Amino acid sequence: MLNGRLNTTAEKGYLEKLAVNKNPNAGASYNASKTRISINLSQLKTRLLFQTTFLDKRSSERSASLPRKNPMQYTIATALTIGLLLSACSTVKHMPAKEGNIMNQDTQQIAGRPNLTALEVLTKVLDFLRYAQSPEDFEIETAGKVMNLKLLERTDGYSDFYIGNKFGDSDWIWSINFTKDQSGKMRLHFGDGGGNLPATPICQMDLDQFHPLLEQAGFTYTGKGRLGKPFNGYEKKYPNGYEADLQVFYQGESAEKVRHKCINEITFDIFKPGS
User: What is the count of structural domains for the chain?
Assistant: First the structure.
């Protein structure tokens, strides 16, 4: 049984060494960082010879780290060390990558600074554009749930709540702001600090790719316009009597790719006509 435990533990990478603990007051202990079990031989009540076949699966260099004077003739006859082996398997489990990513994402969202790409930001904005039908949907809890983001309240009066961050190591930043009064307003902004940088980091989903997704979401294209910078205009009417205006602003990706239109701002307004 013990040999099987050792084999399983070594195969999974939780155990590489069995060492002698020279502390006379110690029993047995497991070091997770060094994947090593240390044993005080004087504390063992039973000595048996067992095969260390698990070491055959490791390198000869690692095998050489075991004491040679006593070629593992001291087996662990007590439940204590078997418990240590089980503990090695249970406590040193590596978190699956997916689970780890989720936890990191949750931490970032709590801080209001999720590490997203431009494509992910636009996708979350599109989720809200599909969902919203009235100013009542412009609540921090509702918008946060729809977009799967931890939004933050603002106290400077610029908006009611928001979220934003940088795009990785680039100088581009993004922010989404929400305001609710008689109408509901949302503004997405991609900014480079006025440095006229190439828009490549924000062009993972360009204007031509975003356009059909808006039409699929029920928005009607109303033509091009200019409010300081060019935009595509859209509108949408809802069964509850509310209407929406949507502007998608854009710029050329770079001097070399000026015709490649990259989204740099979106403004969205739901209102009741005549109110």
Answer: 2
